[in-house]
Amino acid sequence: MAFRFTESELMNEPLHTSRDKCVYYNKTTNKIFTSAYEGIPENLLLNFLGWMIFMILFAVLRKRAWNYGRIALVQKTEEKWTQLFYGTMDEVVGASEVESITSLDSSIHIDKGYCSWLTAIFKIKDENILMKCGPDAVQYLSFQRHIIVYMLIMMIISLTVVLPINFQGDLEGDERTFGHTTLSNLDPSSSYLWTHVTLAILYLPLGIIIMRRFSVTIKFDERDTSVSRTLMITHIPSKDCDSANLHRHFREAYPEMEIQDIQLAYNISRVSVLDKEREKVYQAKLYCESYVKNTGMRLDMRPYACGNICGVCDVFGCPTVDAIEYYTEEEARLRNQVDQERASALKKPLGIAFITLTSVEAASKIYEDHKPSYKCSNNPPTSSVSCHLKPHNWHVQFAPSPKDIYWENLSVSSNYWYIKAVLVNCFLFLVLFFLTTPAIVVNFLDTMTVENELEKMVSKVNALIFMRPNSSLRLYTNGPK
Question: Model's pTM, two decimal places?
Fold first, then answer.
């Protein structure tokens, strides 16, 4: 038996529902979150719980699985690859050992528990960060400290001045409504609105004063003037990229200029990985030797994946070994691999050269000659080796400071970096724009209700016929059983 209803009949005819059914419906609809303050307290609680879980997980894994709990912030400074390739290996290793011992002395007395790194965060000095990460990191952290101070001042003013003023109105619900705490709660003719205007104006000079204080603390090191005299040239044919050809080209193309130094870049991505592994092994060996010196006991270890966490590895044929002997053998093996890879990398230039001239004017002249014109081409001076070096294809720019260059990344194609940057920024935009707003997150969770079968059926029918909920309920209750 079929029933047909027109939309007008369903819309106009009143729906008679008993009081018991309404009470039953209300009892079976239980929301997970309340609507007080638009779900912001619940959102803050969820963020705090998530932060606590990740902090505990990090502390446990760091203590159990990390390389003897060394603190990354006070590890040695990364090796300058110019020294690694243009100096001797003994100089590199010698400098590494001196810095590693300093790092070890700092890490031994700091890292003794699961959460000891929390205190180290507040005790670490800018000198340690400068040694590890350079002056740019110190300036960035100083900038963040000034921003924190600025936001702290704004928060105090908002809680002690703005919030009580907003509570004086009565246009947006009661005290448990989020709108009651906002500017829209005040009457448009209220004199309290001038407080908002005044504070908004005062925040601007306050920010300028704080940022001015930050800017005067920035120190520019102008002792090394060779950076401004050094050009970075890319797109040189790899097979003809050597110092002799470049010296000959600039001597013939610019006879009035003197080239002070020419350095080539090589593919050191593999060397970088091996050298970092060697340094980790050396740090671990120093820790074990210091432990024996302080306690008189030698450490044992399981050199397997998750061997420090799993305590039943002996049953599966994974016994412990002496830690000092293992790390000594690993250090020797990795050092040999670093030497072999370095020798191999020196035979494969990337087509990138760093040219240092005797004056800034000479560097600027070469830069201008190789700058593309409005026709997207240039006509630099030629030489007898121009047919091999192809200077018209060069991309010339002033070289950054060597300490600001990730030498192992020079072998990565620029197209790859652009694609990676686009994908990463798109992902961050989607995450930060759609998922970090409390109203979006809480409203989504608020729709997760505990419903009975009647509500589920009503929702499905309502979605299909695009009618109001009461019309859909009437259609369902009067239909055939």
Answer: 0.55
